[in-house]
Design the sequence.
């Protein structure tokens, strides 16, 4: 048996070069000068002065504690949802404040799959989902070549995509199981409710509002609320739809266990007709590239690395077993499966 806790704990730390430190970063350990003077204390947010001092240290690598970033994101996201639930307008400024540290982290952390795993290692699904979709949408936007204000607006749309859920009754929102027909009809109102919440403020560009309104539309016309098809759906919504499904599949819920990233990507590939196929293919290719640097824990207890993937069978790659000359083709060995991914 592998030690899940060990990997989960390590996910929250990250080694960075001192030249990449930012104000607000939190270290996992105290840092002293040679003469014993303390420069920075573990667990405290770094000030501009400390960052400057640390950049001139002999030690070039320090370890960051990312829990802080996560917890801040959760509480800011909670506050925004609560404001919306009270019927008050949400200031664009407060959403920007929520997403900025994550945008910085995306720039520093090249492997988006690791950053996403950090976010989904805890509960509070609704709040982490918010931050997660903002991040993933922005990452897909970057892969598509979006930049500047457009990319920023996409991040905001992704972060706010489910804001309408703040007006859905909690017994429906948190129901630990499938919804009844009536409950689902109420739940399906959330994109419209989200659009209306954003309309209360003049801060939001139409692209952000359409991203929120249309994120459950599907290019094959089977989505809601308006059954739009293809490019009738705004680009932001077509991106958010993919991010949303990927996150839902890879998250633990009360009523279902999460899928590993490979199985989730295969699911999206098999359902690609519902999504923008160009974005789906780019998404799968880039996510698989990110996953290349990860190792796998198999159900037979062995550790391995993916050496070959076929798009039709993403969840069943060819795996080289660590420290051995042995290969396992999961397409053939149906008795073995992927248990977990080590980032
Ligand atoms: Fe939604």
Sequence:
């Amino acid at each position: 048996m592998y030690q899940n806790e060990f990997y989960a704990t390590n996910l929250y730390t990250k080694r960075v070069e001192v030249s990449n430190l930012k104000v607000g970063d939190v270290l996992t350990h105290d840092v002293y000068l040679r003469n014993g003077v303390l420069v920075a204390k573990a667990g405290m947010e770094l000030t501009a002065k400390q960052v400057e001092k640390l950049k001139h240290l002999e030690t070039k690598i320090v370890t960051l504690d990312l829990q802080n970033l996560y917890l801040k994101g959760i509480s800011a996201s909670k506050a925004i949802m609560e404001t919306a639930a009270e019927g008050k307008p949400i200031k664009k400024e407060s959403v920007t404040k929520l997403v900025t540290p994550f945008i910085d982290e995306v720039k520093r952390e090249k492997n988006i799959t690791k950053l996403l795993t950090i976010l989904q290692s805890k509960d509070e699904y609704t709040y982490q989902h918010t931050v997660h979709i903002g991040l993933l949408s922005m990452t897909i936007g970057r892969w598509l070549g979006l930049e500047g204000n457009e990319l920023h607006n996409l991040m905001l749309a992704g972060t706010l995509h489910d804001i309408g859920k703040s007006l859905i009754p909690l017994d429906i929102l948190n129901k630990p199981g499938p919804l009844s027909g009536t409950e689902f009809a109420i739940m399906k109102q959330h994109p419209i409710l989200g659009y209306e919440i954003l309309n209360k403020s003049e801060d939001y560009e139409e692209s952000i509002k359409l991203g929120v309104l249309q994120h459950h539309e599907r290019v094959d016309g089977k989505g809601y609320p308006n059954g739009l098809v293809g490019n009738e759906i705004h680009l932001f919504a077509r991106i958010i739809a993919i991010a949303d499904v990927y996150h839902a599949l890879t998250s633990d819920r009360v009523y279902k266990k999460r899928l590993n990233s490979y199985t989730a990507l295969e699911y999206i590939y098999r359902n690609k007709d519902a999504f923008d196929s160009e974005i789906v293919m780019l998404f799968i290719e880039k996510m698989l590239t990110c996953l290349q640097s990860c190792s796998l824990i198999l159900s037979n207890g062995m550790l391995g690395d993916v050496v070959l993937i076929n798009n039709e069978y993403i969840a069943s790659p060819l795996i080289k077993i660590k420290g051995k000359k042995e290969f396992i083709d999961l397409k053939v060995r149906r008795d073995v499966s992927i248990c977990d991914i080590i980032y």
In short: The pocket of fe (ii) ion is lined by residues 161-162, 190, 215-216 (CB under 6 Å).
